[in-house]
Amino acid sequence: MEFGILGPVEVHDRGRLLPSGSGRERLVLATLLVNAERLTPTELLVARLWDRPPDSAKAQLHNLISNLRRRFRGADASLIETRPAGYTLRLGPHRLDLATFRGLAERGRAAAATGDHTVAVALLDQALSLWRGPALADVADALAGEVRATLHQERLAAAEIKLDAALALGDYDAALRDVEPLVADNPYAERLYSRQMLALAGVGRRAEALTVYRRAHRRFFDDLGVEPGPALRTTQRRILRGDPLGTAIATAVRPVPRQLPPAAPLTGRGQLLDRVVRELEGTAPVVLLVGPGGVGKSALAVSAGHGLTAVFSNGQLYADLRGSHDQPADPYRILERFLRALGVDSGQMPTDPEERVTLYRSHLADGRTLVVLDDAGDEPQVRPLLPGAGGVVVTSRRQLGALLTAVRVEVPALPTEEAVRLLAKGAGAARVAAEPEAAREIVRLCGGLPLAVCIAAARLAPRPDATLDEFRRRLAAHRGRLDELTVGDLDVRASIALSCDALPADARRLLQRLGSFATADWPEWVAQALLDVTPAQTRKLVDELTDVHLVEPLGLDIVGQRRYRLHELVAEYARERHASDETPVEWARALERALTGWLALAGEADMLLGDPAGECDEGVAPPPDSGVHAVRASPLDWFETERAGLVVAVDHASRSELPDIAGALALRLSAFFWHRCYADDWEQVLHQAISCVRASGSDPLLARLLDGLFKAHLHRDRYAQLPEIAAEHLAVAGRLGDPERHVVALRNSGLAALHAGRAREAFDRLEQAVTEARGPAVADGLLCDCLDTLGFALWEVGDAATAVPLLEEAVALDGAPGRSLRTALHRYHYGLALTDIGKLDDAERALGAALRTSQEVRDDLGTAYVEQAMADVDIRQGRWSDAAARLDRALVAHQKLGRPDGLAETLRALADLAAAEGRWAEALIPLRRALDVWRGTGSQPQIVRVLARLDRISAAAGDEAAAATYRAERRSVLAALNLDEASMRVPPFLTDDGPERSMPSDDR
């Protein structure tokens, strides 16, 4: 069959015109043809067919596909394949005018790029003759407009290259004949005016050429409000000066770079390739391919680039940025190379980096050049190379999260079925089909990595008598993977062994210990601790491992530490050698040194953050010097960088039965996990440490860990688990007879009772904790915390007047250095209570101090809470725009950090703001959302406060029925909690007589 879409949609079979169906059927067929041999997603077809897809869209699409299949069944029953995510049209032996056009156009472009302009004109003329009118001419614009516009750009690009070739040949008459209708059809294509002027000048009509410039200038200025660009102005100046026409043409007609390396065959990457191509054909300016080394990112990027030569008709630029190497490429040197490829000679090359970027972006402003940036190291390296128009593919082993406009595409290991297909390619399809389960297990043991699967296939290929199951069993055996994943000179273990055997003994020992201990990447001091050598010796040993590619250097991390990593197969080799070469006693000493290093550094960082865990690791050896500098430079950044390693360290310590290290390290991580909302990590390390410490019988450490677990559950609003944890904590503290531990346990017991709605019990425990904390055996810091807890609890039940002196005393006591996070927290609580008793100026000062401290230590969570509290002050003082801005920032932060209580309180404040402005109906929307959040946490005191507002605001909005419902529920909850109306903390503008300040009804 012969398919035609470059004009009306036509299908011919052996000279006979076949009916192509309705307008929708023709559009579906054309879309499949444009994407021939590639997946066309169902979502794309639906979007093309309907602006607002009906519920039956997919069913209707299925019917359209069925109709097309029936029409062409006689010629090719398998023309359209159904795929899981859409459909693929297989052209096979059939012909498509678009494919023929693209092939001829690409050959013409290639000829023009090499200076063979005569051949270029002939090929492009042949390509353009295939057009029978606008693409999809018989499909309505409403359906086919987007596809038609894309194909029109391809036609226009081919026509422009033909024009350039004709001008280069001096065939000005032909160029003029071709360019005039193009200008008429594309009145805002500035580059066409430039070519028309050159053609007119070439036939001796320079005055008319300058008239064209004036007409273009008027059109652009009158219609668009802009001046013509520099290229058109340059053409005008050259014609005015009477420059030789060849010089003007050489300036206007730039080379078309084709810098992509040859495309390697891809296996199992069809959908990924389709997606990359689809994104670049659409509106995505940057596609970022991320994944581990060797997974095939570069091959995918290059293949996508080769498939898009028609779309990016002005060429492809390629650079290996070497971001994973020790010396990444300088982006400004890359810019120089790119500009030379675009025709900028040495005399025009800017020396200033910013001017170079500007010129580069000007050259690529037409949006028809593809830039492939391979192996990017970081965002600053990439940004100067982003053109601002056209398409960009970036590959990187890192996430490059600050490239905000990039469409991120993860390049993972091969899915099982695709890895099996790759195995079948090399080992034989019949063998794989005969043993499907063994094949699936082989690719699983290869980790789905294409390289490993190819080696497995190469091992099997010359041995047709061997079964896949036999190979699977050998691969799965102890140390079997490295034994079997070798073919020819590709022998992983032999390669590693050759390097390792040549190492000095200490370097070999370091490699083995790193394989057994280190996480995915690690700072240099870890190597020092594992061997107990000097920093200089460590550097020498690590350099030896790096030189033979057993360790990969990653450069400096964000806190200035040198980082390294082991390749996965190297790590496996190191682990198996370590198990046989080192005694358990030697390994235990090395492990304890490394874990102690983690603990010492975590303790240093925790102290700088505020040390909410208190002293828990007395007697630990001083931290490694190289790590200390990083910690002191930025403790939060250090924690963030080493987060994964610290979690693994707690696991190592727990499994190695080192309870003191496991417990102390879990406690030292608590403040960081709290303020960064890494709740899963926090609970994991605490549970592991508690199990280890329970087995050891160390009650002092167990008491601290139970306090940490209580805070972790409180932090996640998991109130139901608090009483059980508090009860065990109180029992352990009772056994210890330690006054401070008992005070902490009492405080937690009171908080658990408060959140369970048992106010009398809660205040009994909290007041007892304060009383005991005033004793001589308890440090002022703990008294400060207990006063703050009691004051905050009183504020929560509406007794702000009683809370204020307690919170004021806590703030006064909290002057010890190193308590900045808690200092901010105490001032925040103090400000809340001052707000409720109407001392708004004092509240603003306290909250302002809390905000400054939170921002100084980069406590995003604390900053969000304080912003929300300051918004409450703004609302009461009528600064509504200030309040709105603060609440917007708080809302974004709480959503990002996943804090339900913070989100609910911010929604409540947004409702207060709307109510204060008299927008009653609008106020109900965030308030209902807040109620849903608090119902999810089970916090009864918070639920009753939202119900109180819903009661008043619903009534103000005129919905008395809803108000009555909320009122009834509120009274029921208050009665169950034994609290009075004061606990609702309703702001003055929602009451008749100002803020209520009575105490809770129970006598505590």
From TrEMBL:
Under the heading InterPro entries, the entry gives: AAA+_ATPase (IPR003593), AfsR-DnrI-RedD_regulator (IPR051677), Apaf_helical (IPR042197), BTAD (IPR005158), NB-ARC (IPR002182), OmpR/PhoB-type_DNA-bd (IPR001867), P-loop_NTPase (IPR027417), Sig_transdc_resp-reg_C-effctor (IPR016032)
Please cite one Gene Ontology biological process associated with this protein. Answer: regulation of DNA-templated transcription
**Keywords assigned by UniProt?**
DNA-binding, Repeat, Transcription, Transcription regulation
Domain called OmpR/PhoB-type: residue spans: 1-91
DNA-binding residues (ranges)? 1-91
UniProt xrefs under SMART domains: AAA (SM00382), BTAD (SM01043), TPR (SM00028), Trans_reg_C (SM00862)
First and last residue of the signal peptide:
none
Record-linked Pfam families: BTAD, NB-ARC, TPR_12, Trans_reg_C
| Gene Ontology terms for molecular function | ADP binding; DNA binding
The record's family statement is: Belongs to the AfsR/DnrI/RedD regulatory family.
Record-given protein name: SARP family transcriptional regulator
User: Which organism was this protein described from?
Assistant: Virgisporangium aurantiacum
